[in-house]
Automatic annotation (TrEMBL):
<feature type="domain" description="UDP-N-acetylglucosamine 2-epimerase">
    <location>
        <begin position="23"/>
        <end position="360"/>
    </location>
</feature>
<dbReference type="InterPro" id="IPR020004">
    <property type="entry name" value="UDP-GlcNAc_Epase"/>
</dbReference>
<keyword id="KW-0378">Hydrolase</keyword>
<dbReference type="Pfam" id="PF02350">
    <property type="entry name" value="Epimerase_2"/>
</dbReference>
<dbReference type="InterPro" id="IPR003331">
    <property type="entry name" value="UDP_GlcNAc_Epimerase_2_dom"/>
</dbReference>
<keyword id="KW-0326">Glycosidase</keyword>
<dbReference type="InterPro" id="IPR029767">
    <property type="entry name" value="WecB-like"/>
</dbReference>
<dbReference type="GO" id="GO:0016798">
    <property type="term" value="F:hydrolase activity, acting on glycosyl bonds"/>
</dbReference>
<protein>
    <submittedName>
        <fullName>UDP-N-acetylglucosamine 2-epimerase (Hydrolyzing)</fullName>
        <ecNumber>3.2.1.183</ecNumber>
    </submittedName>
</protein>
Length: 376
């Protein structure tokens, strides 16, 4: 029986991984443990650990950290706090593999803890590029990891060029695409009714997070986006941002405009509601990776703003614009006029969980794996 330990810190990473985690839990030769930290344990961010519990998955350890003030210093200190707590958690859980996704600080802390305890690390979504602080953190996690499950062939090739062993890099597709069509089961009428929005007017799904290096501009940029949508006659379903530096200013800009007609603001949406909004919205706008990766499976037009996803591979539904009024007005006009595109997604075919579970079951976990060195 192989024990797989996944680290989860946000609603986003859990939503992407839920199908894979359920598949691990159901596998007869595996045992799943989940260490929960970060925004999951904060009332301000929706206590989204409850989503994990409702899914019937095990919350094996809880690692609370300080969420305020949301600054780069808090983010850095939390890496240290999580590192210490993860060492204790992994010593108690004794996993055979630590499974990590993406590019956040909790995943970096998980990788650092695991390698010092001689636990192999498997990393999902490595090899991608995005700019901002996410870029070096993602690559740092990759260099601390022993196995790589990538979303695209380009990402896999980049990891090999970075010195990762080619036989330890596998293209699985993005796990967040698994089951998205089935999740999008809530129709537009029900979504708009519950949000207090009209069904006969265009709606944008807005997810905009601050960028660490540009935190001072985050509130201003949010206001520009919301004003451009209002001036375009587009209603808004907006989600509150993550806890990174600059998020208080984003929250304030959202809150001050939340009383407008045609503006709905929520802290958190369950995964099925979020995906349903993505499928039903006339346009998705902001800088979330969901717009880059998942939205193409529905052909939803995406207006990607700023630098947060600057170097990611693009599907045909994405247009990139700066946070400037005229550019945004023009992009909204184009998106509404062009309408929904044919669904096509370079990030995968929705079968990532099966591939990841098969690989986890077959990975060589002998001591040679831990003696990692650059392959070039």
């Amino acid at each position: 029986m192989r024990k797989i330990c996944y680290v989860s810190g946000t609603r986003a990473d859990f939503g992407l991984m839920q199908s894979t985690l359920l598949a691990i839990q159901a596998h007869p030769s595996m045992e799943l443990a989940i260490v929960v930290t970060g925004m999951h344990l904060s009332e301000r961010y929706g206590n989204t650990v409850d989503d994990i519990v409702r899914a019937g998955l095990p919350v094996t350890q809880r690692v609370p950290v300080h969420m305020d003030p949301p600054t780069g210093a808090t983010m850095a200190r939390n890496v240290g706090r999580m590192l210490t707590a993860f060492v204790d958690a992994f010593e108690e859980i004794r996993p055979d593999v630590v499974l990590l996704l993406g590019d956040r600080g909790e995943m970096l802390a998980g990788a650092l803890a695991a390698i010092h305890l001689n636990i192999p690390v498997a990393h999902i979504h490595g090899g991608e590029r995005s700019g901002t602080v996410d870029e070096p953190v993602r690559h740092a996690i990759s260099k601390l990891s022993h196995f790589h499950f990538t979303a695209t062939a380009d990402a896999a090739a980049r990891l090999v060029r970075m010195g990762e062993r080619e036989d330890h890099v596998r293209v699985t597709g993005a796990p967040g695409l698994d089951g998205v069509r089935e999740l999008a089961h809530i129709d537009r009428l029900a979504l708009c009714r519950d949000a207090g929005l009209r069904t006969d007017a265009p709606v944008a799904l807005l997810v905009f997070h601050p960028v660490l290096q540009e935190a001072a501009a985050a509130g201003r940029d949010t206001g520009i986006i919301l004003d451009a949508l209002a001036d375009s006659g587009v209603q808004v379903m907006a989600l509150m941002p993550n806890a990174d530096a600059g998020s208080n200013d984003v929250r304030a800009a959202l809150a001050v405009r939340s009383g407008r007609p045609g503006m709905a603001l929520v802290t958190h949406l369950p995964r099925d509601a979020f995906i349903s909004w993505m499928a039903q919205a006339d346009v998705m706008i902001g800088n979330s990776s969901a717009g880059i990766i998942e939205a193409a499976s529905f052909g939803t037009p995406v207006i990607n703003i700023g630098s947060r996803q600057a170097m990611r591979e693009r599907n045909a539904n994405v247009m990139d614009v700066p946070a400037e009024r005229e550019a945004l007005l023009d992009a909204v006009r184009q998106a509404l006029a062009g309408g929904r595109l044919p669904p096509a997604n370079l990030y995968g075919d929705g079968d990532a969980a099966r591939r990841i579970v098969e690989l986890l079951d077959q990975l060589p976990l002998d001591s040679h794996v831990l003696m990692k060195a650059n392959a070039y």
